[in-house]
Amino acid sequence: MKIFVTGGAGFIGGNFVYYMLKTHPDYDIVCLDALTYAGNLHTLSGALENPRFKFVKIDITDRDGIFGLFDTERPDIVVNFAAESHVDRSILSPEVFLKTNILGTQVLMDACREYGVKRFHQVSTDEVYGDLPLDRPDLLFTEATPIHTSSPYSASKASADLLVSAYCRTYGLPATISRCSNNYGPYHFPEKLIPLMIINILNGKPLPVYGDGKNVRDWLYVEDHCSAIDLIIHDGKVGEIYNIGGNNERSNLQIVELLISTLGKGEIKFVRDRAGHDLRYAIDSTKIKTQLGWTPRTDFENGIKKTVDWYLNNRSWWENIVSGEYINYYRRMYEDR
Ligand code: NAD
Ligand code: TDX
Predict the structure, then answer these.
(1) What is the rounded average pLDDT of the residues 295-323?
(2) Which of 1, 19, 130, 133 is least surrounded by Cβ atoms within 10 Å, i.e. has the fewest?
């Protein structure tokens, strides 16, 4: 079995590469990644020596290059993680989100059709459902919740989902979609809430909480997301959408306070809110639990401890990032906030 993992030099894709190499000792994994600002070959250093792993630097919007690679490698399954993934960046510059997240997905699906790939899996997000009110804890997103997006990022992901469903119905593409809540864990790029706060605490910088910090996210340890995708690509039904969530809602303020208490220091600074900021995400994962037998294994306190330890023990991974081009992004995003 040969699996193409696009976006495998990023956070979740990188964790998925390690998960699959460990869980399926007879599979070959080929990672396709353009190495944008978010892609990092250091993330894959533990896989690059493995004879069952291959890395190819390629942009998923490069139609000729992608078709050529499918022609030589002939994958059985394609799992598409490659995306522009940061909401704040999508507010600054939406265009690349539309190009990669929508057109890139289309190129991959066209190649899957041409080369008879047995399964195309689209890694999507709970953000396609928009947000829920803070005062209705009884409401959760199900797979039947209508798409209702807020940011250019979520609009681009929702557009890709619609295109996947259309390819499935019109061309019979054997595709599945998963929509996951917020992940956390090793190799998470420092622009995102949890790693940003850990690194700012370690560097003695203020902790920028948007608005009043009451917005709620549902957090899932990244390895539990990987196990869910592994189940879906093997046992999931073609044409189906599966929600994946941690059942673990926390306000941003609770997250930051937990990190302060875990690391023993840190000073919160309330800053200007994100435009269009979604209030609350909460996922109902009943379908994947009952139909595919998925269960998340890492509880939140343990997951946060493992994550903080990882950032403490892997300083060079994130120091390389925060000392490079990322400095300019950080200044632009936070200096006048
Ligand atoms: P990330 O930003 O850490 O990684 C994205 C990877 O995609 C990077 O390695 C980057 O180089 C690569 N990439 C970007 N554009 C590319 C292109 N045109 N061609 C080839 N490679 C390209 O993102 P992540 O957090 O790991 O998210 C992975 C996927 O999971 C995304 O599709 C995202 O929408 C989805 N998702 C993320 C979360 C989360 O909490 N992070 C939750 C639900 C769903
Ligand atoms: O400095 C910050 N301060 C802050 O208060 C940052 C970076 C974020 N926040 C808030 C905004 C959100 O309410 O924290 C929350 C989480 O923010 P992000 O880490 O940017 O994640 P989010 O916008 O929730 O989106 C994430 O989950 C869904 C991923 O980045 C997406 O790729 C995924 O689809």
Answers:
(1) 97
(2) 133
- Given strand 2-6, what is the order of strands in its sheet? 53-57, 28-33, 2-6, 77-80, 119-125, 175-180, 241-244
pLDDT tens readout for residues 64-123 = 999 999 999 999 999 999 999 999 999 999 999 999 999 999 999 999 999 999 999 999
Span from the CA of 12 to the centroid of ligand 1 (angstroms): 7
Q: Which atom of ligand 2 is nearest to the CA of 252?
A: 14
Best of 81, 102, 105, 120 for a ligand 1 pocket test (most atoms within 8 Å of beta carbon): 81
Both tokens of 224, joined, read 């539990």
Which CATH number applies to 2-188+219-249+280-299? Answer: 3.40.50.720
Instruction: Please state the pTM of the whole predicted model.
Output: 0.98
Which residue lies with its CA nearest to atom 3 of ligand 2?
209
Q: In angstroms, what is the span from residue 239 Cα to ligand 1's centroid? A: 22
Ligand 1, atom 36, residue with closest C-alpha: 125
Mean pLDDT of the chain: 97
User: Hey, is 28 helix, strand or coil?
Assistant: strand
Residue 324 banded pLDDT, cuts 50, 70, 90 = confident
Active site positions, annotated: 126-127, 153
